[in-house]
Amino acid sequence: MELMPVGDRYIWYCDWCDSKNVTPWVRVEEKEVCCAACHKTFPSAAEEARPLKIGRPVSFQML
Q1: 33: containing domain
Q2: d(CA 24, CA 8)
Q3: Global pTM exceeds 0.70
């Protein structure tokens, strides 16, 4: 599972059922996230996915 930061939310795809999930960053700060479709839980690994705070907003471009 890979968390992709988009604004104030993370988009991720469930490894179990392959459904798309959108989770607010506040929820990702917890130890695990839950798939909205199959309700399987996964470790959030928020330390790896948290955007850096360098003083200016971080933006991402979808290609």
Answers
A1: 4-49
A2: 6
A3: no
Q: Length of the chain in residues, anyone?
A: 63
- Side-chain-side CA neighbours of 27 within 13 Å: the count stands at 17
Encode pLDDT of 16-36 as tens digits: 898 999 988 776 666 788 888
Task: Please check whether residue 25 is in contact with residue 32, taking contact to mean a CB–CB distance below 8 angstroms.
Answer: no
Average pLDDT over residues 36-44: 86
Instruction: Report yes or no: 21 and 11 within 8 Å, Cβ to Cβ.
Output: yes
Task: Answer yes or no: is 33 within a domain.
Answer: yes
For 9, phi then psi, to 5°, come to -135, 165
* Residue 60 within a domain: no
Asked whether residue 56 is assigned to any structural domain, the reply reads no
Instruction: Provide the number of structural domains found in the chain.
Output: 1
